[in-house]
Amino acid sequence: MALTAAERISMLEEPVIANLSVDSGSARGPVCTPMWYRYDPEEKHVQFITENSARKVELLRKSGRATLLVQRADPTYRYATVEGPVSFSPASSELLLRIALRYLPRDRAEAYVRDSPVDTYSTVTLTPERWTGADLGEF
Fold it and tell me: What UniProt keywords apply to this chain's record, in alphabetical order (predicted)?
């Protein structure tokens, strides 16, 4: 059964690891990589932080678009995707901490941020244009 808009947003707000997909050209399939992220319901966008030297950054800059998939592996099995344009801005320790706190206890999140070379990272903002999602039920 298709998810409602509220259910899709709720999925994005869960602390699950997302799969980011970006076009890598006609000779290869899309790059798909796991990502920590945050959804901002006020700004209505998804943000993640990644290393400037990562291949996905080069591909994101070239294509200007991405798809993000989140899924729940426990009943009820659900997924939601957002697809849209991406933009870049400098990363900050504050945003990295907000994202890390979704996945780690505070002490580990703070250590992660402290040990991260944030000046070599970018914040990628994905603005959803298309949404899909479904509840596959319990099996």
Answer: Oxidoreductase
Of 1 and 112, the one with more pLDDT: 112
Q: What is the pTM of this model?
A: 0.91
Q: Show the tokens assigned to 76.
A: 């009820």
pLDDT tens track for 103-121: 999 999 999 999 999 999 9
Task: Tell me which CATH code domain 5-133 carries.
Answer: 2.30.110.10
Residue 130: other Cβ atoms inside 10 A = 9
Position 139 pLDDT exceeds 80: no
53, 26 contact by CB (below 8 A): no
Q: Residue 57 is inside which H or E element, if any? A: helix 55-63
- Domain boundaries defined on the chain: 5-133
Q: Residue 80's CB: how many other CB atoms inside 10 A?
A: 26
Q: How far apart are CA 119 and CA 126, in angstroms?
A: 21
